[in-house]
Amino acid sequence: MDKVFITGTDTGAGKTVASCALLHAWRSRGLRAVGMKPVASGCVLTEDGWRNDDALALQAASDPMPPYADLNPFALPAPLAPEIAAREAGVDLHLGAMSAAFERLRTSADVVLVEGVGGWAAPLSATLDQRHLVEVLHLPVVLVVGMRLGCVNHARLTARAIEADGARLVGWIANEVDPRMERRDENFALLGARLPVPCWGRLPYSPQVAVRELATHVSPPG
Q: Entry's InterPro entries (predicted)?
């Protein structure tokens, strides 16, 4: 697998943590693995320009380290839904710039991981959904499930939406975002029995653990 799109059951599911773990897992196999966050809202102005924490985490987990402008072509200041943040910034989000940046990243990588925003159905603009980016780049999709109350419903609905939109769901990752969740093992088993694709891993709740150490908890193909 030389490319993949990471989506989540909702905001806060842990897409970036899962994405960085996957990048380190591929790198441990000797592959050149690079992350991409085409659109990121909630950025801080630095001496190098607008920067987003999630995009910077992907950059740090990548090898070779990609130019920030290619990794995150649309860095939006306001911590809002991308459609609103882009409108506020006077920015026109378009697939051309995202596709061009993606192709530049592919020239130096064996695997390019593209992280989406929020959940699958979160729009990028009034005319652009994440499914359009997945379609134009021909990306298989991996679903990150934030393990908390209600996750079985959210995961099943998202999986159905991905397939209904014509995208190809190829795997899912459980991310234990709520340490107080009861019956975690039982819920994990329910998801495994009902999601139509293999589980790529289960990330424990470990806010103090370095992301590279979480790579041992995921097993992506390729």
A: DTB_synth_BioD, P-loop_NTPase
Q: Is 222 within the bounds of a domain?
A: no
Strand 3-8 with 141-146, pairing: parallel
Which mean pLDDT values do the consecutive 10-residue runs of the chain (222 residues) have? 96 95 97 98 95 97 97 97 94 96 97 97 93 98 97 97 98 95 94 97 88 92 76
pLDDT, tens digit (0-9, with 9 covering 90-100), for 33-86: 999 999 999 999 999 999 999 999 999 999 999 999 999 999 999 999 999 999
Residue at 182 is within a domain: yes
- On whether residue 193 sits in a domain, the answer given is yes
Asked whether residue 16 is marked as a ligand-binding residue, the answer is yes
Is residue 3 annotated as part of the catalytic site, yes or no?
Answer: no
Total number of domains in the chain = 1
For residue 42, the SS3 value is coil
Structural domain for 136, as ranges: 3-217
117 is known to lie in a ligand binding site: yes
- On whether the CB atoms of residues 33 and 62 are closer than 8 A, the answer is yes
Catalytic: which of 37, 148, 154, 217? 37
Q: Is 15 exposed, middle or buried (0-12, 13-18, 19+ CB in 10 A)?
A: buried
68 marked ligand binding residue? no
Report yes or no on 72 lying in a domain: yes
222 is annotated as contributing to ligand binding: no
Angle at 116 between CA 142 and CA 160, to 5 degrees: 50
CB 222 within 8 A of CB 208: no
CATH label of the domain that carries residue 22 = 3.40.50.300
